[in-house]
Amino acid sequence: MQTPEPQSFDRVLSSMCTEPHPAARDAAERFLATNPGDPGTYEAVADLEERAVGLLATVAEHPSPTEASGYVAGGGTEANLQAVRSARNRHPDADVNVVAPESVHFSVYKAAEVLDVDLRTVPTDDDHRADLAAVEAAVDEATALVVGVAGTTEYGRVDPIPELGRIAHDAGALLHVDAAWGGFLLPFTDHDWSFADAPVDTLTIDPHKCGRGVVPGGGLLARDPAAMDALAVETPYLESRSQATLNGTRSGAGVAGAVAAIEALWPDGYREAAERAAADADWLAGELTDRGYDVVEPDLPIVAFDISDSTFEALRADGWRLSRTGAGEARVVHMPHVTRESLRAFLTDLDRIRT
Ligand code: 0PR
């Protein structure tokens, strides 16, 4: 049987994946059969991974990118899990908790279950951002980690990261920032989110989302090596002595794709994409508001709006790939493959379906 064509991105408004940059596609193919999990054997990809960490640390405004540690994970799920694991391992108590806003990605729920830590989720405010008073009330001496999200999955909101850092550190806990999706957009906004802006200990930033790398390519970064040391296990029969990653064998494609994409696009290519996405999100929000929809004002470029079940289903039947928030709003995620032209076509279909 012939291999079928993959899904086209033409009508995909729901995804946080996008077309990889051509240079990333090419680099990924060349490194498909390499394993950065065995740096003693696959030296070229191991060197590339060091470069990837330095580049990601530059994007995340680490004060000294060559001193940041981290690795290219399978995605945001693995990076978040490893951040929780590292904080748990570094805390003196055996039974620890993690405090996060309820807007946190579901990967943190998985992490808490796998690692058997108590996850305390606290409400968000009227603007879907972490409620600081609720976070403050939830932390205690057994809190190992406070999580803030810089670009929430449902509404693209950025939590007050510096304040979360202060609360975490006052309680003797660490701060993890999940910028899995937002990390390549935030440098071009005035949000505080980065290693430079706040006392961030660990950070998730995924090349395979807005970084235009290839899948699988997530990013875990740590301000200092202690966070990675807390993850290391001994690897007696490999040339390298220890391994801090969760997966053993990993894809060299993700590493090479990340480096190629970031070197091609940082900073101007990402700036252009971020500015275009922001302008398109504002434009779409305005068009929907003019048509009488209830729209959640976009911050980072995700537009959520109230829609009936029947309209949602009709749009899906027309081939539009839309998803919904927990509250039932439709979400449009303005990834690089989403153009003004495709949004006009979407509105044309929406107008036809409504009448
Ligand atoms: N953190 C945040 C803030 C995220 O939005 C996501 C994924 C993750 C962590 C987990 O990342 P991985 O999926 O790379 O492990 N957010 C999207 C979501 O759950 C992922 C996604 C991607 C969904 C592509 C659909 C899709 O087609 O909605």
From TrEMBL:
Gene that this polypeptide is encoded by: mfnA
Gene3D superfamilies: Aspartate Aminotransferase, domain 1, Type I PLP-dependent aspartate aminotransferase-like (Major domain)
Sequence positions bearing N6-(pyridoxal phosphate)lysine: 209
An individual GO BP term: coenzyme A biosynthetic process
Species annotation: Halorubrum alkaliphilum
Enzymatic class: lyase
Listed NCBIfam families: tyr_de_CO2_Arch (TIGR03812)
The protein's Enzyme Commission number: 4.1.1.11
Protein name (Swiss-Prot/TrEMBL): Probable L-aspartate decarboxylase
Superkingdom of the source species: Archaea
